[in-house]
Design goal:
Layout lengths: L19 H7 L5 E4 L6 H4 L5 E5 L3 H12 L1 H9 L9 H13 L3 H14 L27 H10 L3 E4 L3 H6 L5 E5 L22 H18 L3 E6 L2 H6 L4 E11 L7 E10 L5
Parallel strand pairs: 1-2, 1-4, 2-3, 4-5
Antiparallel strand pairs: 5-7, 6-7
Helix pairs in contact: 3-4, 3-6, 3-7, 4-7, 5-6
Family: Belongs to the N(4)/N(6)-methyltransferase family.
Enzyme class: transferase
GO molecular function: site-specific DNA-methyltransferase (adenine-specific) activity
């Protein structure tokens, strides 16, 4: 892993920037990394594989990545125009959020997605059941325009293919000399911690079980190692009983209420070929 870490250009709840070294160190060697839940891409940005297949179920995210890969300078120039003082107000934010929810123009959505990400509350990416982006205004003094981070992502994206598919379809694309890293929406630590709405459909406990099954099958039947990160709770300890589980020993404070935050542990579950 390179000495200087690269930050993602998006703010992202559950982002892996602080854990990137540990995750990359745990990944078995391979020529290609597949990420079915790429999110903001911190592991991608801070790893060194020959090629990448980066997937997410959120089409706005993947469309943005594809655009940034194809025409980075135009995108950066146009996106920067939204980062002006007159757009950093509650009225401007909600007008632009409504514009984002109404438009069907992909490039316009690409531009507004970055604006909403940097001006919205706490870097959340959340949709209602109708598919409308519904994160409230963040009230930041001067939202940061991540020009250098956009350029770094665009440069490395030359090695990547981006897809927007259900995770089980991404597993089917894995071949020999590939390793899979999965960072799904985490299982709740309690019944009130159900922040899984990265897409409008959420991520269920049944899908967590299916992901673990797919991971074990990939390792056992196809010889493809799979690494999964998640909360370290009794459910996941049971879920990943056939994997090599390690405590990340890193605490993440999670709560939408800043006055009510509690630290929770995370884990890595590694499914090794012929060992699960």
């Amino acid at each position: 892993m390179k000495n200087k870490k690269t930050r993602a250009f998006l703010k992202w709840a559950g982002g892996k920037y602080s854990l990137a070294e540990r995750i990359v160190e745990t990944l078995p060697p391979a020529s290609k990394l597949i990420e079915p839940f790429v999110g903001a891409g911190s592991v991608f940005l801070n790893s060194d594989f020959d090629s990448y297949l980066l997937n997410d179920i959120n089409p706005d995210l993947i469309d943005l990545y594809k655009t940034l890969k194809r025409r980075p300078q135009q995108y950066i120039r146009d996106a920067k125009r939204y980062f002006v003082a007159q757009n950093n107000s509650e009225s401007a934010y909600y007008a632009l959020r409504e514009q984002f929810n109404q438009t069907t123009d992909t490039y316009e959505r690409n531009l507004l997605f970055l604006y909403l990400n940097r001006h919205g509350y706490n870097g959340l990416c959340r949709y209602n059941r109708s598919g409308g982006f519904n994160v409230p205004f963040g009230r930041y003094v001067k939202p940061y325009f991540p020009e250098a981070e956009l350029e770094a992502f665009a440069e490395k994206a030359r090695l990547a293919t981006f897809t927007c598919l259900p995770f089980h379809q991404v597993f089917r694309r894995a071949r020999q000399d590939t390793v899979i890293y999965c960072d799904p929406p985490y299982v709740p630590i309690n019944t009130t911690a159900m922040f899984t709405d990265y897409s409008s459909k959420g991520f269920t406990l049944d899908q967590q079980v299916e992901l673990a099954r797919q991971a074990r099958h990939a390792a056992l039947k196809r010889g493809i190692p799979v690494l999964i990160s998640n909360h370290d709770v009794p459910f996941t300890r049971e879920l990943y009983q056939h994997a090599e589980v390690t405590d990340l020993k890193v605490k993440r404070s999670i709560s939408q209420n800043g006055n009510n935050r509690t630290a929770v542990s995370e884990l890595l579950a590694l499914y090794k070929p012929n060992e699960c």
